[in-house]
């Protein structure tokens, strides 16, 4: 799933980066930014490096500036992909963090958002998160799906609920 280009320059994670705050939503630590009064939310699903990546949080802040509530959950439960960690095994990490689990966790986050008055949720995912968004798009819990820098997704996986997917390369 992660190509060598992805691992050449991993981000330096920074839990204090961004204008938002970390809250618990749907049982997950979640970076939250934007209007708490918004009825529309954007769920950003991180690549394998996780929700503390500074550029992801900066992107969340920019999207939030348009009036959305933006949430970036920690789908890795404090265990982001870290090739510099002693003894780290990428294949074991991928087995421990399947995108199917990410999809189930995302549905719990969306349910929690809707219980707080959010009426519509869009989801965007990067790499691992893109694969998770494709799985999530097959359910009725999101109104829009955006896949950015997807992992190895097959045509069969994207065929489903949404009639059109647009790929920008």
From TrEMBL:
Q: Pfam families given for it?
A: DLH (PF01738)
> Superkingdom of the source?
Eukaryota
Question: What SUPFAM superfamilies does the entry give?
Answer: alpha/beta-Hydrolases
Q: Which GO terms describe its molecular function?
A: hydrolase activity
Recorded hits in InterPro entries, A to Z, give: AB_hydrolase_fold, Dienelactn_hydro
Where in this chain does the record put each Dienelactone hydrolase domain?
Answer: 29-156
Q: Which residues are in coiled coils?
A: none
Q: Can you name this protein?
A: Endo-1,3 1,4-beta-D-glucanase-like
Species, as recorded: Olea europaea subsp. europaea
């Amino acid at each position: 799933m992660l190509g060598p280009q992805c691992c050449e320059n991993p981000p330096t994670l920074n839990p204090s980066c961004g204008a938002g705050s970390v809250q618990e939503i749907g049982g997950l630590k979640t970076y939250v930014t934007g209007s708490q009064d918004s009825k529309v939310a954007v769920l950003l699903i991180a690549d394998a490096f996780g929700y503390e990546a500074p550029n992801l949080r900066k992107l969340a802040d920019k999207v939030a500036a348009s009036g959305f509530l933006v949430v970036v959950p920690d789908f890795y439960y404090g265990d982001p992909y870290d090739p510099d960690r002693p003894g780290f095994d990428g294949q074991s990490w991928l087995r421990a963090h399947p995108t199917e689990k990410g999809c189930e966790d995302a549905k719990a986050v969306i349910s929690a958002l809707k219980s707080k008055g959010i009426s519509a949720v869009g989801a965007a995912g990067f790499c691992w998160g893109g694969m998770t968004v494709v799985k999530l798009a097959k359910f009725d819990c999101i109104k829009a799906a955006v896949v950015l820098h997807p992992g190895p997704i097959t045509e069969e996986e994207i065929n489903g609920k949404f009639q059109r997917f647009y790929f920008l390369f």
